[in-house]
Batch of 4 targets.
Target 1
Amino acid sequence: MQAAMVDVLPLLLLILLGSSPTGRAADDEHEEFTVLDLSSLKPHAACTGHRVTPPHNGSWVPLYRPHGPCSPWFRGAAARAKLPSLAELLRQDQLRVRHIHRKASGGHFDESKGARKEPVTVEETQVHHQAAISVQWGTQSMGSFQQTRSIDRPAADDGTSGGPPAVAQTVVLDTGSDVPWVECVPCALAECPYYDPARSSTYLAFPCNSTACKQLGPYANGCVNSQCQYRVVSSIDGSVSSGTYSSDVLTINSGNSITSFKFGCNTQSQNSGDGGPTNGVMALGRGAQSLTAQTSSTYGDAFSYCLPQKDYEKGFFRIGVPSGAAYRFAMTPLLRDRPGGPTPSATVYRVRMVAVTVNGQPLNVAAEAFAAGTVVDSVTVITRLPLTVYGALRAAFRDRMAGYRRAPPQDELDTCYDLTGVRFVKLPRIALVFDGNAAVEIDRSGILLENGCLAFAANDDDSKPAVLGNTQQKTIEVLHDVGGGNMGFRRLAC
């Protein structure tokens, strides 16, 4: 009864103040709280498209959740599939955070010892919350010219020149890995969704003595039939991807093709070849093999993405620095390695968080608690804060949510509420402040999960970096201007 009475307050405010097309009350920017409609967090059967459409300058492609209704894979049984449990998500997410902490401290997975194999349900749990894009792999000669297939046009499978000039592939965006890879034939399905290098006239397998092969470093996996082999452990689900290191044409959209894109052609995957929602990983890390590095001469070593507020909306992925970035983004410097200190991995993107505010008031936390820096990661779902910082945030949040009934903790989510019968929830505003006075307010959908829990968790202590997860990145265009040495944040971009 108490929670139901509290629920009336924000609803009345919405009526009195009026609401904007985006669901934000007219004077919401000037209030200490924000109102979350819990029904907006529930699954939806239809894709509503872009909430905010990016400028049509040819440098972007739609972004979506692999299991969401905006995904090309969302049909038939996929549309009726039961969503994975929160417990599975948190377990897999914690494995990702450990991976990021190893990367940030200069550690790596021991490739020689193989990788654990998580149950398929756990893999799908993690994939469900990721950002993915559809790209086209390869070309096939069509008389005197090359043709690129649209995503929706079916491919002939008769071996003739009318066959598939390119294969549309759904790839997860991963800022914590270096080697892009895609599933290659064979697979168990009659209509195989995987890329077939034998049918692409521009495919090239790198010889073992090639420069590209020698540059693989820890990802090299020997030589088979004089062809260079790679091996990576997926930082998304822990599975192994291995096969031939190759190159081919990658078409991101009609105006952006990379003619000799280097990638792993995965033929040894532990995937069952079931035609699931993703076909590979688009590595966006800082290593020499990533998409970022391979396109640096053309696009200035920069990219950005924006994850939508709801799973049934589209966001976008963009290559290059957007026009007007200097004044449209809150910019903060990317951290460099500390002289004389441990050498962090070149893969991850680290910035310096200096404060967290609740309703505009900074938490009473010493600067030392932020000293390990913050990794901004596209795959981690729930943001992890240093233990001291999280404790202060939790106390401030609980104080301002005192009108709602508390609920038992759910695994590492220890601040939960019983919101039975409640639709509109009045939440305190939370903002992260980075070096350079770059203040980034978290969208209301990134504060509270559908289960009623605060969408933050704690590291074991203050010695490990914070990890900014994708739940807290919703609606924010996150710019990785690696060439300029900065990271930018633009609110309400999608």
Note: The longest strand covers residues 240-253.
Target 2
Amino acid sequence: MQCFRPRSRKDQVDKTAAVVENRQASQSQQVRRDGGEGGEAGAKQESKYQLSRIMRPDDANIVGNVHGGIILKMIEEAGCIVSTRHCNTQNGDRCLAALVRVEKTEFLSPMFIGEVAHVTAEITYTSKHSLEVQVKVMAENILTGAKRLANKAALWYVPCSLQNVDKIMEVPPIKYASAEQGEEGRKRYEAQKMERLETKARIEEAVPPPPNPEQHTVGFSQSSLIHLVGPSDCTLHSYVHGGVTMKLMDEVAGIVAARHCSTNIVTASVDAINFHRKIKKGCVVTVTGRLTFVSNKSMEIEVLVDASSLMEPETGNYRAVSAFFTFISLDKDNKPLPVPPLKIEGEEEQRRCEEGKARYLQNKAKRLAEKERQQ
């Protein structure tokens, strides 16, 4: 008589695991057939991504406006995910997309506690070693269902090998709807590449403010934040997430604006953010913000991020990131308030103020041109 031994729990688990492995292997082979070597199907499948999150009290300031840094961090997370997914649709070394630049970002509408942020990221251009991701942020009132456009941004990433962070991988191409779309993307790529080189060439030091500065001077509102980079701040490469850095930059810029106005302030826009060098786990970053120009209703704040390694002090201090943030002052009804004039002291501050005024007028002209084009 043949006896049958009842299956043990371990046997059932092993069999289930084998089935799952076979199914995953089959799915992986199908994905490679559909999108291997940067094929059109694979590229199209991985070129768009959306994430959503409800805004909590710890995401906002004391009057309920969500911090611009929170939105910037979500934008970078979505951009990193869609870029990394796309760059891993081809065979070869696995890679992680690293943020190198954020184009001018407009905060079109404030977001409040209790609203849901829907962040949609889409790859719009690829070069051999970099890709452009355009992001839109929609704010949804889940009580009424009303939605509005809160933010738009364009980010540039490069894929870095997981085996060697200094090795830049090739980017799978995407298919453009028209030849014109590809040509426009190429022009944006060439322009941002040139601007990154120009910005790197004019890096300046952050001068400490004088003792007991007068109110409404640059020194009075200048602020710094010191942060030790920990594991939770970092990517798989053990380098800081771009979104973490941008959040710290927005916090410092907000402190500068609040000190100058002594009112509720919000982020209105951010000029191009350039990531000059990577920041590694264990580094101490010093984020410094200083006013460079003030108009009737807005403030331009230069934010500089310097880094130094605790474990490798011989590497010295270096400039990692730089950008210009624009803030506005609001009353209790979220209406713009006049901004106190900035008192300029010295030739260096005068020079920075004139450069800030030129950027202000240039951005104002661009907004008016864009408004006329849409009409």
Note: The chain has seven helices and twelve strands.
Target 3
Amino acid sequence: MTTLMFTIFLFTQYYNVYSYMTINKYDLSDCVLNPKLVQEIASYKNITKTIMNEVVNNGDTFYNEYANFIDKFGARPAGSVVLEEAIDHMINLTRSNGLETVTTEDVMSPHWVRGSETATMIKPRIKPIAILGLGSSVSTPSGGITAEVIVMRNFNELNETIESNVKGKIVVFDAHYTSYGETVAYRVEGATKAAEKGAVASLIRSVTPFSLYTTHTGSQEYGSNVTKIPTAAITHEDADLLRRLQDRGATIVMSINMTSTLDYKTSRNTLIDLKGCEDREKLVIVSGHIDSWDVGQGAMDDGGGMFISWYVPVIIHKLKLKPRRTLRAILWTSEEPGLVGAIEYLNRHMNELNNINFIMESDEGTFEPLGLDVSGSQNAVCIVAEVLKLFKPIDKLKVSSTVGSDITIFNSKGVPGASLLNKNERYFWYHHSNADTMDVQNKNDVVQCAAFLAAFSYVISDLTEDIPRY
């Protein structure tokens, strides 16, 4: 299939698995590891303490570099000039920390630019409606769209509604948040399903469990053979208002005006290697994406995850430690439009997948660290569980079919991996919104995440035994 179709396919697969439907599928009481391996893992206790203490002792410097990056560059949309400047910054920062083995690989990235966006309810009364266009949305026609509104609770209700009752209207999906994996379908597929019924625009209730009149953006994908209609998110408060008005039998009319552009630009994945002392061709990868949406600062999604991943080879190098395998940090580009950087890396390195011993990612917040969400064989999970014993109380283990965002596509190819588990109950409060700023972060939590990730990564990269695929 073409690169674009492959991107859309994997993007859809990513959101289908994001709800982590497979949990704790292995019984850890069944783990039977070689006693020599158990003893070897236990021998890393002191070095893990050394690594974590070093990160904590340098916590102020690390966190200040992170805050400086976020405040200097702010939002870093895929394909933008500011994203490329941010990538240059991280390359220079890596080299200034003594690591010269930093390279980049070009990625052709979508470059969607938001223009002006306004919406007003004009019947049954005049009220401004806050909207935030969804990624890749087309513009409204010149002069905007004024049309009657129909509010739908879910896709089933839309399917059961005759086409003549939808045609020419603005469909509002009032799907309440249950989990990200379930509710995000309305963001990804809403415009297509509404267009199939003849709608002229679609709006969604923002995909978040909590709102202070905040709108949340994110990617959507137009299906084939449908008219591309403008689509945006509205607040919970306005979605509730529209629902109440419709339930009372009111005729709702809204005017929407949206502009945007879409083209393609060259971006870059950034690879930072701390070469192994023995099995240099084997990789332990730790990663996070450097791009963000165009709202907020991208501090939480995914500035924190990117920065703690970047720091892994940096701090291990500073301590003059030489793991057996190569430690590679990858700063993925263009994750937000649909894992574009990761897909390019996978395609480019497909013949080298067997060299990836373990792959990790942080893209679900850098709040208080709890442990890891792991994808892999039972033997792989058992080894990770044993290593986590070194990090009590950061030793929670969750098992999923795939984990993270970018690395899901590697898990699906049989590569074992893990995503950082953290106390992120409020993650989707801020996600893809203007509220994603440094204010949601806590310095001690971010530093502890960095310390845990660095120490765990070192152990996995240095063990004499590979993480088994099967």
Note: The first helix runs from residue 3 to 17.
Target 4
Amino acid sequence: MEKAPRSLVLGATPFFCLLLLSLLYTVEIRSRQVPSNQWKKTHSGVSRIEDQHHMHSLMKRLLKGGNQTQLEETGLACHYDYHTEVCVSNRPVRIDTLTMKVYVPYDQGMPEADSIIIPYAKREDKWITGTAVSSVQILRENISTAPACEYTHNVPAVVFSSGGSTGNIFHEFTELIVPLFLTSRHFQSRLHFMVTDFRLQFMSKYKKIFSHLSSYEVINPAANVSVHCFPGAVVGLHYHDHLAIKTTEIPEGYSMLDFKQFLRDSYNLRIRESSQTQTEKPTLILVSRKKSRAFLNEDEMVTMMKALGFRVVIGQPDMMANMDKFAEIVNSCSILVGAHGAGLTNAVFLPEGAVLVQVVGLGIDWISNTYFGVPAPGMGLNYIDYKIEPEESSLISLYGKDHPVIVDPESITSQGYEVGRAVYLLKQNFNIDVVRFRETLVKALGLLGRSAPLG
């Protein structure tokens, strides 16, 4: 084949350079915009949401009564209660991630003062939010005076903090994961999460949950200092109670059973009902603790459990650290047994109809019932508590059988949470009476429709 003349090649070079620069410029401009996937509502097979009116409707569901009216009239309304503060704008907003200021278009009917929001559920816990959670300021501005957009998004933002009590699975689920679900699930993944106080370990641990709540990459303000523009925004998360959802107060009427189905979808868990786990030997998982509230005779307990016909899995701390794998293990179990503590939060992965058995130590009746006893039925679980006798607590060897710590725990806990925590949560271990505890597990078997072996 005959080669092209050298002069022709050289003459074409400037043209190709200009073409390449043009393409690069186009890519750069487009990279600063998020693809405009159409809003789509997959729940109940309803067709796509294609206009702004439907986004307004989704935003409105996060408010009640007069707040809904104010949102419609002014484009901004805030909900406040003892636990949370949540502000909603259904008009275009600009968020400066350097200062975490949210600029909303000014309207005369808006609240008179700008708002400073603590975007974390349970804001009343000042010892958490006071040091670990950064505030977000909402400013009412003439949009022409607000900072110029650097990134433009076509879905709304949900802004919250991953500070607080992350690192403890109970607080993570109670104060972040469940609130995220009940605040954002009805958007059907068409939203951007912007996470202040960004904690990589927390975000990595729950990446499957985030990817099932949003189709878009999470924005870390500290790593992306710029001005982001959204068609609307939610600042803060709704919170109802410990591991609980109040169905009448959430869009779509979601419940904790819906939340558990969401977890099964997120972690690809196969078992919905405990009847699906009914093999020859039902599986019992024992949450093993090493520091406080540990079972000092754990081996003896396991021997008794196996004699009752259980296949026993011991949930060690290192095993529980792998959330993806441990969720699958718990989902295959019929009974979860453990002393009061964060590890019992894994009950969210149990199939419906399974049994949660909580060992309740001295001085922790209220917190044990409030954190796990009350929420269990809402998650479709059977619940049994095993309240230890003084002789089963290691505290008796520290204080003696006649000390107020043993005979009158209320006199200790009434001195305040920190006093009670130092004694009953941090110093107490258990030497379980396996004969008496066997009766509890026989009852658990009965709730599963099984009977204990004779003898």
Note: The chain has 18 helices and 18 strands.
